[in-house]
Amino acid sequence: LSPFLEKVWAFVSKSEPLSTPAPLWQQRLGGTPVSATIAGNTVVVEHRTLVEARSLGTGSRLWERKADWAAVTGGGGNSAVVVGKLLVKGYELLDPSTGAVIRRDSDAVAVWTYRNAMLDVRCFDARDCTLTAWDPRGTAPLWTVPMPGIGFVLFADNPDILGTEPLTVTRIAAQAGGPEAIPPMLGFPIDDKVYVVDTAAGRVLQEMTPAREERIVVVGGRALRITAESRDGTCYYGIVAVDPATGQEVWSNTGINLRTTSGAGCTQRSDPAGGRNVVVGVAPDTREMVIDAYDGNVLWQGEPGKRLVSVDDSSALVESADGRTLIGAELRGGVRWDRPINEKAQASLARYAAILLDQRPDRLIAINQVTGTELLNVRSKADVLAAGPRGVVIGDRRDIAYVPFAGVMPIDPSPGTGGPD
């Protein structure tokens, strides 16, 4: 290129800072990332055909590996990266800081990653499979349980199981806070039945068959039988919670809409919204509510017009009826804090903080979920890809950056996997 064209190209390709004040570091990637996850002192970035890890302290690339899918298991110094190829059995478990192989598997057709465990499933024929649990960085199984066949379809990482779906927004990653702890029980859909697995003991507790108008999901150690019956031109809803260990009904509720239906009719096609041990429902008077799946208690009920934005099993973010106030609420308690927001602001709970992306002006704000204290407040139009105990990873197309919380200890630039959990 001529010197003139080189200057033009340098100007066009130059990245503007993703925040003001400037982030701790900013890097331009080879393509737009699919996801990013903070794992110890690294950021694991998933692309369509490769995965790479970067130093959380400097943004420099530590390693990269060709892979069609990737997921992080564990947390802090116990993190690991699971990678694999589509339509190929098996996976590799990698150290986030070095890319070194911790363990290889050549038979698994699917994996599920959690903060304190990892599951994989392998099938010997169409009716003979096993589900195995591992410590995130473990090399010996914690337990193995036989399962009926799930076919020979390769599901890669974290295929859908029957639980809850998080409330999401477009500019904050649904799993920004990293993997969640493994639930006490999981529901696997197999041959139009639901197999409930006790993840502590490693055994199948129940084989449940949903009725024609039922959907079964497993949340908070309970199997929820959700009915949506069409009568009189409307849908009539009901919930029966069963203890999978005994098969006995624990609690029930009628009239609460868990939003499992969509479109015409009352066919249930979706899992309820929620998080960890809670589900989100709508009362007959249109007020939203948060229900403890374990005992059926209503932990929070909004006023007419208020909109639930994000929830886990201890906190909720609520938007006022006029869309001008964001409220931090304690489940089983009351309002912790509130703050003004502008129209079209987006907010989400991300384990270590409540994340707010405000507009007019564009700002990225991280808030202590309990006190409402600001951990971070910068000008930014970027999306939030990941949140950790000391800051957030933001991105805009090919550019990513790391913005630390105010007053946190500097990050050790060495590539060790340590770091707060």
Describe this entry's structure for a reader:
With 421 residues, the protein is an all-beta fold. It is built from 1 helix and 36 strands. The strands form 9 sheets. It has a 5-stranded mixed β-sheet with strand order 13-12-11-10-14, with no helix packed on it. The chain has a 4-stranded antiparallel β-sheet with strand order 1-36-35-34, with no helix packed on it. The chain is globular and about 70 Å long. The termini are far apart. The relative contact order is 0.14.
- Strand order within the widest sheet? 13-12-11-10-14
Structural class: mainly beta
Residues in helices, as a percent range = under 10%
Strand % is over 45%
What does the average pLDDT come to?
Answer: 92
Largest sheet: 5 strands, mixed
Number of strands: 36
Distance between the amino and carboxyl termini: 49 Å
- The helix count comes to 1
Shape: globular
Rg, nearest Å: 23 Å
Stretches where pLDDT is under 50 for at least 5 consecutive residues are 8-12
Provide a quick synopsis of the model.
With 421 residues, the protein is mainly β.
Layout of helices and strands:
Layout: H1 3-13, E1 25-28, E2 35-39, E3 42-46, E4 50-55, E5 61-66, E6 69-73, E7 80-84, E8 91-94, E9 101-105, E10 110-113, E11 118-125, E12 128-134, E13 143-147, E14 156-157, E15 185-190, E16 193-198, E17 203-208, E18 214-219, E19 222-231, E20 234-243, E21 248-254, E22 274-275, E23 278-282, E24 288-292, E25 298-301, E26 307-311, E27 315-319, E28 325-330, E29 335-340, E30 346-349, E31 354-358, E32 363-367, E33 374-379, E34 383-387, E35 391-396, E36 399-404
Parallel strand pairs: 10-14
Antiparallel strand pairs: 1-36, 2-3, 3-4, 4-5, 6-7, 7-8, 8-9, 10-11, 11-12, 12-13, 15-16, 16-17, 18-19, 19-20, 20-21, 22-23, 23-24, 24-25, 26-27, 27-28, 28-29, 30-31, 31-32, 32-33, 34-35, 35-36
